[in-house]
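Curious: explain these tokens?
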Amino acid sequence: MIGFLGEALIDLIGGTSEKGESLFHYYSGGCALNAATAASRLGSPVTYIGKLSKDMFGVQMKDYFKKNNVNVIPFLTDVKENSMIGFAKLDKTGAASYVFYTQGTTISTLSSDDILKAIESIDNLDYLHVGSVSIALEQSGNQILKALLEMKNLPLIFFDPNVRPTVIEDFDLYRERVLKVASMSSIIKLSHEDLEFLFPDISQKEALKVLFAGRVQVVLFTMGKDGLRWISENGLDITVPAIDNPIVDTVGAGDTVSGATLTYLSEHGITNPLDVDKEKAYELMDFAVRCAAVTTSRKGANPPFRSEVN
């Protein structure tokens, strides 16, 4: 079982009607929701660990999870707090910039006790995906960190900070929290921009040393059109280029990579990332970039089903 801990939200993506009027399309989204959906559509058993509101958007997301065979935690659904909202604006290349409405929403009331109780209810939890806005926010980030510190038996933790500067209240506290979560993670997924934001005063080589000094065994770099790069603690350094296809937008592409990576690890029974040799690293990333290419070929975070990839 793969657990996905973090935010499920509604993405309001700006657009223009046929009459030239400004409008918003709304989609179920968020790091944990998108990655969980990607893994489930690829055939993995998954559970979302987070709150869902009883408001209209929460009902939409609950139905979306059900449609995509994503398990939810019953006692964390139908809560009174409103759903979290993300406003997204796309540039000419399809890349998105975000503003988030979080205060008083479901993510702001998720407690460490909620998380631990939910995790205890999941049988055979071998992998746990953690990210991303939920870590950036002080309240939820501290509660997630507290829960991880109190867990007795950590599964393989896949950490996706996916840095969102607009929601970071205090950079120093955020960086400290990210490094603490990273110190309990086996794999951390980063863009080069994420790494530079987190380590502005040192080189990439020195930053990797800091990450590998903890529990991190693999840094998985997402590099947009340049593909993916797998750097392991034991010296493996493999790059796989992205698929060169027309891009509609990039919403959910990174989350698709996360879901595909965890699916590959789960299907191959790999719970120690250092067991991924050169051949497996290539296979894993080739699978992930093919999955991401499908997502970027259509509007919104709409990851592929297995039949669309193989």
Observations:
- The chain has one domain: 2-7+32-50+69-79+111-308.
- The domain at 2-7+32-50+69-79+111-308 is CATH 3.40.1190.20 (UDP-N-acetylmuramoyl-L-alanine:D-glutamate ligase).
- The CA atoms of residues 227 and 242 lie 4 Å apart.
- The mean pLDDT is 95.
